[in-house]
């Protein structure tokens, strides 16, 4: 483990200084683009103003024989639109550390995209050692190509070993921006007997005892991801980085997608992935607090201007702790309001 003083030192001579705080950014949806497809890439300038983050995906879902085309397509796409000018984050998901494409992904993207890249998403992170390696590798490349700001890292939590080490991963480097749940690979890694990409499962439930009258027994579906999610959220919050829900594969089930995203939002996540254009609006709706919640939160802050004491609002006790909850909501609303004039008006912020 690095010493406290060493933690924020650049890892290469000439590399930019590590960030001490996360940049303030709204990241309600990370929109995945397959950059090897000319048709989809051509739509990026039109999609970009509707999302918070555009991500060029180079890993799973890109066929092996299109990996080079996806990387080249991402570099072209990254330079064709002024994402920073639109206030849109530019991310890429690289191939995993032991893959034949990893080295070219990292080296060519740092050289070809440079300071335009905000975040590199690293799949299948098993422990802090994977982040330490990326940290050093990026520092050397940033120095060589004269980058002015450090590229941040986002880990996907998608192996049993990664879940075991999630706290150490979250705190492994000042580059860490956040962690996403990767339910598909995690299910495989854990030998879960499912074929879904995230969401619930109708067979994972509890059932009441047999009824004396032999009538049908009440059963309730449980959340198969809750344990992992809660562990990931706590690890991220403790280390001051952001947790995200990952992908929801049932594109044809927007209602279940909205519920999965909402569970993540309520538990503390900053956003989720959108795999298909139809999921962008779902993420935007869910990860923007309800104006009525913001209005009530503002009343709590007004009732206790210095954040201490006790107050009653509509029959509900408020104190220093609910003041802090209210501040979380209002701060979130304020960041979104700065980006979205319609929500600014709805929030009165
Ligand atoms: C487990 C994990 O790792 S998840 C992350 C990896 N997976 C991904 O990144 C998948 C990304 N998404 C996609 O590839 C596609 O959305 C698919 C394969 C899921 C569905 O694609 P399609 O069957 O073509 O969807 P559909 O026909 O509804 O598309 C409608 C339009 O939106 C476009 N579109 C689809 N997905 C995207 C996208 N992610 N971004 C931009 N445009 C898109 C299509 O090209 C199509 O355009 P058109 O009307 O001009 O023909
Ligand atoms: C998100 C991802 O990569 C997975 O679910 O495997
Ligand atoms: Mg995966």
Automatic annotation (TrEMBL):
Top-level lineage group: Bacteria
GO terms for MF: (S)-citramalyl-CoA lyase activity
Any Pfam family the entry gives: HpcH_HpaI
Domain HpcH/HpaI aldolase/citrate lyase: 50-277
Enzyme Commission (EC) number: 4.1.3.24, 4.1.3.25
Cofactor: Mg(2+)
Record SUPFAM superfamilies: Phosphoenolpyruvate/pyruvate domain
Keywords: Lyase, Magnesium, Metal-binding
Sequence similarity: Belongs to the HpcH/HpaI aldolase family.
Designated name of the protein: Malyl-CoA/(S)-citramalyl-CoA lyase
């Amino acid at each position: 483990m690095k010493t406290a003083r060493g933690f924020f030192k650049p890892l290469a001579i000439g590399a930019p200084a590590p960030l001490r705080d996360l940049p303030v950014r709204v990241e309600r949806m990370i929109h995945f683009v397959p950059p090897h497809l000319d048709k989809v890439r051509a739509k990026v300038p039109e999609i970009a103003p509707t999302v918070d983050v555009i991500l060029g995906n180079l890993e799973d879902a890109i066929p092996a024989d299109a990996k080079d085309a996806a990387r080249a397509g991402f570099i072209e796409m990254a330079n064709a639109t002024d994402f920073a000018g639109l206030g849109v984050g530019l991310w890429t998901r690289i191939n995993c550390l032991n893959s034949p494409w990893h080295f070219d992904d990292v080296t060519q993207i740092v050289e070809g995209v440079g300071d335009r890249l905000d975040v590199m998403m690293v799949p299948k992170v098993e422990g802090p050692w994977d982040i330490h390696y990326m940290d050093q590798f990026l520092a050397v490349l940033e120095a060589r190509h004269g980058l002015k700001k450090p590229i941040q890292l986002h880990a996907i939590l998608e192996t049993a070993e990664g879940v075991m080490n999630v706290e150490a991963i979250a705190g492994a480097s000042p580059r860490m921006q956040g962690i996403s749940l990767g339910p598909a690979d995690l299910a495989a890694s854990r030998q879960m007997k499912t074929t879904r990409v995230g969401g619930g499962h109708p067979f994972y439930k509890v059932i009441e005892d047999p009824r004396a009258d032999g009538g049908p027994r009440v059963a309730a579906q449980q959340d198969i991801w809750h344990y992992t999610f809660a562990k990931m959220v706590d690890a991220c919050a403790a280390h001051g980085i952001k947790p995200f829900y990952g992908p929801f594969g049932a594109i044809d089930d927007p209602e279940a997608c909205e519920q999965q995203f909402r569970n993540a939002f309520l538990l503390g996540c900053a956003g989720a992935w959108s795999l298909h254009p139809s999921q962008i609006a779902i993420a935007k709706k869910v990860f923007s607090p309800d104006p009525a919640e913001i209005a009530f939160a503002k009343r709590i802050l007004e009732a206790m201007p210095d954040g201490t004491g006790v107050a009653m609002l509509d029959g509900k006790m408020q104190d220093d702790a609910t003041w802090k909850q209210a501040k979380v909501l209002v701060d979130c609303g304020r960041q979104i309001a700065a980006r979205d004039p319609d929500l600014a008006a709805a929030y009165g912020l």
